[in-house]
Amino acid sequence: MIKVRIEQKPAFQVIGKKIWISGQENEIFGEFWKNSRENGLVNRLKELYHQKHNPILNSAVVGISCVEKEPSLRSFYFYIAAEADAPAKILSHNPDLELYTVAASDWAVFENRGSLPEALIAAEMYAFMEWLPASEFIHANAPEMELYPPAPDSNTHNDYVEFWLPIRKK
C-alpha cells in the first residue's frame, strides 16, 4: 500500500552524473543505475553523502528527473547524485561529476515497498494517475526525485522507495 505525506524542503545542491532521457525510454534508467553501481559511482556518492553535515534528504543516493522547465515533457536529464558539503572542493577532485541545485519546493512523497524497479513505478503511477488528479495540487516547476532511504521498519524483506513529486496549489 502506497503511503503519501507532504514535505517542504529548502533548495539544496547535489553532485553526481547525468544522462539524457528522450521520451519513454524506461530501460535507460535501469542501465544507468546498473552501470553506476558497477563502475563505482554509487559507492563514491554514498561516501560523499556520509561526509555531509545536516543532509536535507534521508537517502545516500538519489535519482533526479530534471523536468522543472516543462513537467509534461518526458525528455530530460536524469541524475544519479548525492548531497555533499563543499561542492567546489569535491568537483576539483572529481572532474567527472557535476553540480545540480534542487529548487526549494513542497513535495508529495509517495512511500512504497516491493521489488525494484516495480515499487518505484507503482508509486509514480499512483502519484500521476490517482493522487494528483484528485488532489488540490498540480505539478510544480521542480524536479521529481526517487529516494532509497533506510526503511522505517526493517521487519520486511521488501525494498523501500520514495517518489518525490514537487507540488503547488491549483
Q: Can you walk through the features of this model?
A:
The chain has one domain: Regulatory factor, effector binding domain (Multidrug-efflux Transporter 1 Regulator Bmrr, Chain A). The protein contains 4 helices and 9 strands. Strands 1, 2, 3, 4, 5, 6, 7, 8 and 9 form a 9-stranded antiparallel sheet that branches. It starts with a strand and ends with a strand.
Estimate the global geometry from the Cα principal axes: globular
What's the number of structural domains?
1
CATH level-3 fold name: Multidrug-efflux Transporter 1 Regulator Bmrr, Chain A
Question: Taking Cα atoms only, what radius of gyration do you get, to the nearest Å?
Answer: 15 Å
- At the first level of CATH, the class is Alpha Beta
Q: Based on helices, strands and strand pairing, what is the structural class?
A: alpha+beta
CATH architecture name: Alpha-Beta Barrel
Q: What ranges have pLDDT less than 50 throughout 5 or more consecutive residues?
A: none
**What kind of sheet is the major sheet?**
9 strands, antiparallel
Provide the succession of SSEs.
Answer: EEHHEEHEEHEEE
Provide the β-strand percentage band. 35-45%
Distance between the termini: 26 Å
Please identify which CATH superfamily we are dealing with: Regulatory factor, effector binding domain
> Into which percent range does the helicity of residues fall?
25-40%
Question: Summarize this, please?
Answer:
The chain is α+β, with helices and mostly antiparallel strands.
